[in-house]
Amino acid sequence: MSVGMQRLREDADAIRRGATAKGYEAETVDEALAADEQRRRLLGEIDTWRAERKKVSEQVGAAMKSGAANADELRAKSVELGTSIDQGEERLRSVEASLEELLLRVPNPADPDVPVGSPDATTTVRSWGEPLAHDAGGWERRPHWEIGERLGMLDLAAGAKVTGSGFPMYRGAGARLERALINLMLELQTTQGGMTEIWPPAVVNQESARGTGQIPDKEEQMYVVTRDDLYLVPTAEVPVTNIHRDEIIDAARLPIRYVAYSPSFRREAGAAGKQTRGILRVHQFDKVEMVSFVKPGDSAAELERMTECAEEVLRQLDLAFRTMVLSTGDMGFGSRKTYDIEVWSPGSPGGGTFLEVSSCSNFEDFQARRMQLRFKDRDGKNRLCHTLNGSGLALPRLFAALIESYQQPDGSVRIPEKLQPYFGASEIR
Prior knowledge:
The chain is α+β, with helices and mostly antiparallel strands. 41% of the residues lie in helices and 20% in strands. The chain is built from 13 helices and 16 strands.
């Protein structure tokens, strides 16, 4: 379950409002409450039948010893009660399964300080750097797909040929640039960010996908390996967060911070009908992901820390960006609060645009409840952890923004100073 049943009973109105604010049906809350009421009623009936059968069984024993005439009648009553118990338990299992499924569909209400409303209510909280003008220096910057094809960095036609639209192929300097960016980000987060690097599987089982909230909410957006009932990861968040599923962590180990690279797969990537040119909306992309496990009182500060770690990548590359707190109508099913980071891309048609390269989210105990991920506090009590994750960063749009920002009048691309040791050169020609 995502939202605790006790919380749902005590604060149903707030959870209804939270669901509506995120654009989900509040009726699921009422259906879950009705199923819970039915479950509790069945439990009461079954307990009553059990107590009655125990009493009748004792009467049967006494009647048989005394040779009373009603022994057969009492025995039949005991059998009848046993049948009622079996049927009641069968109905109970069905109701409990239905309740669990309903609870999985109740979204995590947003934090009280999150802007309420449509995506238009999303608010910029800070920005860094000066967005480079489309015609800075007196010449017009070209979009990334033109730069990439001209310099032999991108081969979108080959990707479409071997797989399909939305599966880009990088060549030569493009492949090396992709690898260099991944290495820079992993090195930065393991040294300065204090994170442990993980190299996770690229497929996960159903329990893992359910644990982080991808299913049932986003099942249609995932690629499924049907023969083996596995899912291609939409982000390294899924395998990495599930490392500690069904565990009780010693409080002294918290916080636990991981960083991981993985390929990521999303079926819906090209469905929006915008930003489809080049590599801005693709079905497969590379991403470095940060995941944290913390005590409940520390998750708000951890979200700020994680977002700062993501922003630092862009500062290292000297790319202008802005950070926004998402409104309720713009955030995810399981998140309590989300920051999006957008990098400035000066070569996009129309004079440049901001491109999302990171989302950093605090889930509080939403994922931990689904995964039964707990820690033992000082009093020896088991409590749910809080989990967070954030892109640090997603590659395609970062790749696009970087080559658009660092293109030169002669058509070459300069490599940012901090990236040069990883790339092995100062420019691409």
